[in-house]
Structure prediction request, 187 residues.
Amino acid sequence: MEENKTKNAKIDDLEQRISKIEESLQKIVSTGVNTSSFAVREDKGLQGEKAKALQEKISKQLNGKQGVHCYSYFSNGEVSSNSEFYTDIEKLLSIDAIEAERWFNAFSTSERIEILQALLKKNCTGGELMEECGFSTTGKLYHHLNFLINTGIVQNDSGKFHLNASLVGSVLLMLLSASNFIRKLDK
Prediction:
């Protein structure tokens, strides 16, 4: 019984977070807000037949349901990533709360966010991450880095750490949401 209450509370919290993210994205798209690290805007160049084709594609993907469709392109000079993902709201609200919590925990400490920000700039060795993020001990760095590796967000290739290319768009979306939240706090 208590476990169900906890699970329901987590689902409620997740639904509120998702609602805030949707509101933030809608405002960003409609106003063309620039963030300090990257710009998000409505693509004014996509008009006519191309715009109509994209709209039809999204509508077909969502099968007439309310939904979310995101596209991002990212390159830091070493890694490039195109991400496109979409889902209907019903599926989004039924995701496993425990798994979602693992994702949100990747962004739950300033140290992990600093690691992700550093890896968005460039692929790094452990030593470079120590310097870039200002860690005082390797133990602290690897505690947070291993969490990010175990979630699949960060990968290690021959001693160089980098973001999982298939998740870069999702990481950028989290940072974009944080940027929008911070702007609200500044007002």
Notes: Residues 2-31 form the longest helix (30 residues). Residues 2-186 form a domain with the Arc Repressor Mutant, subunit A fold (CATH 1.10.10.10). The chain has a mean pLDDT of 77.
